């Protein structure tokens, strides 16, 4: 069953798609408002797909049920990881990619994007997808189950461009986790366009402008 989504098409008959995953406790509406800032009117028709993560208990929030792509035991890099939850969310993203393909968008014109926990899934799902994507966007995040992804990643996405951005004052996913992820991705041979901004666990106008420029180079060709 495909996850429920919020969708926005910039024009009729979109030929390109961005699947954008929200952060812990948010939902698919969270990033929908940035579409006008992010899109150049000259771009080809584009579909934004903002899925809602399933509701599940989250350990770090005292077991409170909320929308989450996987359980979080702790924000420290050494905390145990919910591999089963990550794998289930990767499978859910695979289903969304397949649906975009069925709707006429070639996989090579699909970008996976996400913020925080959603960015973690975008990275893992993108690197492991069997067909080459247009790009991966990882905002204020890290690579989950990194050893598993390194083992199971697909050669098809070995050269897929990655836009990675992080706030230098992020108190939730600390900057070190972002730079460690960048270094790990580069060690795997990935092409990472790294950006840092003087912000906390958030997005900023400069970041959106940089991402708009990066997306334009990958979605217009």
Supply the key terms:
221 residues, alpha/beta, globular, Rossmann fold
Descriptive account of the structure:
The protein is of the alpha/beta class and 221 residues long. It has one domain: Rossmann fold, CATH 3.40.50.1820. It has six helices and nine strands, in the order E-E-H-E-E-E-H-E-H-E-H-E-H-E-H. The protein has a seven-stranded mixed beta sheet, with helices on both faces. Strand 8, helix 5 and strand 9 form a beta-alpha-beta unit. The longest helix has 20 residues.
Number of helices: 6
Number of domains: 1
Beta content comes to 15-25%
Succession of helices and strands: EEHEEEHEHEHEHEH
Which secondary-structure class do the elements indicate? alpha/beta
The CATH class name reads Alpha Beta
Percent range of helical residues: 25-40%
The CATH topology is what?
Rossmann fold
Low-confidence stretches: none
Structural shape: globular
Q: How many DSSP-defined strands? A: 9
**If classified by CATH, what would the architecture be?**
3-Layer(aba) Sandwich
CATH homologous superfamily annotation = Alpha/Beta hydrolase fold, catalytic domain
């Amino acid at each position: 069953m495909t996850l429920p989504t919020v969708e926005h098409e910039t024009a009729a008959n979109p030929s390109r798609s961005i699947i954008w995953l929200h952060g812990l406790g948010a939902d698919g509406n969270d990033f929908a408002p940035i579409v006008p800032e992010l899109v150049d009117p000259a771009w080809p028709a584009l579909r934004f797909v903002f899925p809602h993560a399933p509701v599940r208990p989250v350990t770090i929030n005292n077991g409170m049920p909320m929308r989450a792509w996987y359980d979080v035991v702790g924000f420290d890099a050494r905390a145990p990881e919910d591999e089963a939850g990550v794998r289930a969310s990767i499978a859910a993203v695979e289903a969304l990619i397949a649906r975009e393909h069925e709707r006429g968008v070639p996989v090579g014109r699909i970008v996976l994007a996400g913020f925080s926990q959603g960015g973690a899934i975008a990275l893992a799902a993108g690197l492991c997808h069997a067909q080459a994507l247009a790009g991966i966007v990882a905002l204020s995040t890290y690579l989950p189950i990194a050893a598993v992804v390194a083992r199971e990643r697909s050669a098809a996405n070995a050269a897929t461009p990655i836009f990675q951005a992080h706030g230098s004052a992020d108190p939730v996913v600390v900057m070190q986790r972002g730079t460690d992820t960048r270094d790990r991705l580069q060690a795997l041979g990935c092409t990472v366009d790294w950006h840092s901004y003087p912000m906390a666990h958030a997005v900023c106008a400069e970041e959106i402008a940089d991402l708009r420029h990066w997306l334009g180079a990958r979605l217009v060709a």
